[in-house]
Design goal:
By secondary structure, the protein is an alpha+beta fold. It has 4 domains: 92 residues, Rossmann fold; 56 residues, 2-Layer Sandwich (Dna Ligase, domain 1); 128 residues, ATP-grasp fold, B domain (D-amino Acid Aminotransferase, Chain A, domain 1, 2-Layer Sandwich), CATH 3.30.470.20; 96 residues, Phosphoribosylglycinamide synthetase, C-terminal domain (Glycinamide Ribonucleotide Synthetase, Chain A, domain 4, Alpha-Beta Complex). It contains 12 helices and 22 strands. Bound molecules: adenosine monophosphate and glycine.
Length: 423
Amino acid sequence: MKVLIVGSGGREHAIATSVAKSPKVNKIYCAPGNAGIGQIAECVPITAMEFDKLVAFSKEQAIDLVIVGMDDPLVGGLVDALEAAGIRAFGPRKNAAILEGSKAFSKDLMKKYNIPTAGYENFETAEEAVAYLETAKFPIVLKADGLALGKGVLICNTLQEAKEGVQEIMLDKKFGSAGNKLVVEEFMQGREVSVLSYVDGKTIKTMTSAQDHKRAQDGDQGLNTGGMGTFSPSPFYTKEVDDFCNKYVYQATVDAMAAEGREFKGIIFFGLMLTAEGPKVLEYNARFGDPEAQVVLPRMKNDIIEVMEACIDGKLNQIDLQFEDNAAVCVVLASDGYPVSYEKGHVIKGLEAFEGKDGYYVFHAGTKQTGKGIVTNGGRVLGVTAKGATLQEARANAYEATEWINFDNKYMRHDIGKAIDEA
Ligand code: AMP
Ligand code: GLY
């Protein structure tokens, strides 16, 4: 089989690494890819939103399966465009990717189908939002409706902060058209857990759990980022939580989408908050998490191509999804200054240390191959993942491996997986 992966981050490198293990696959392309992906796939200079070019390339190369890793092209309808041209694609169609693409849609869906989530109101004008906030309890959470690179969520402690948030999102359009609608949501307290799942329209199979660290600095301080590190499994994702979510969240979401005429095929990522009243859905994503994929996929025993094809063909019930009985930790090596401003173009040394080391992975996120060698080319540069028999061991291994890599302005959090010790 010939496979094309669409995207360029650490998540797509993790997907490509799993695809490369499949005996069914003899050629992998990635659009646009990065320097690390380029070691196992042929990178083609087409970006994820160039749908016409992606369709034309897939036809010319007779691609058997396109895997769409990123949210923007999914929400924009890349899978529909590929299917219309007769090309098989893994990921939700546009009418189902709205589960991630519109927070107002997903909140209304959860309310209608009694899926546990925080109380909320949706607003289409700033005046109505402010009038509501004047009588609300604080802290309160404001969310831009659309995609905003994970930055469209504001936790406001005072009415003044909330009014400023409404101004930024709805009037100044800081996140563009993502701010045409606003969700105002009750503030929840608890631990966060990410559960990713494969879905074939009817059947859902959840993967092992994971936990991200979204803030830039140690102790969950600093700005929100795309994610600074992950561990899997989460010791807080107990059998009781799993049973609850199986009963009230996972299948209920898939069935709700089907009942709405929006059959979902692909990945549903459940962002859960474990509150005192039980688990509640924080958000849905319609793709693998980044860097959740970097700790979940290395532990998956199945052939990823078989699982993805089963999703497309509505045969996921025939798959016995299995994960290794171990743990993995991913520490993101970023450029100092991320997520605000940072330098690019520094040479990365030490990547070869990972070659032939079982259970250690260096997933590239923002890297580029140049005449000087591989250089930094983004805020999140690399994701260093290591496995271990236990979470503690995986964490020690991952932090040891971060020392193998050097580049100017290398920055990382030193407390990824600290929560493990509280379990
Ligand atoms: P989201 O993009 O919806 O996952 O929001 C980003 C982050 O904001 C989440 O990972 C949470 O840490 C936080 N967050 C979002 N919604 C809430 C909420 N209702 N209560 C508390 N924290 C929240
Ligand atoms: N790591 C969170 C996300 O991918 O949205």
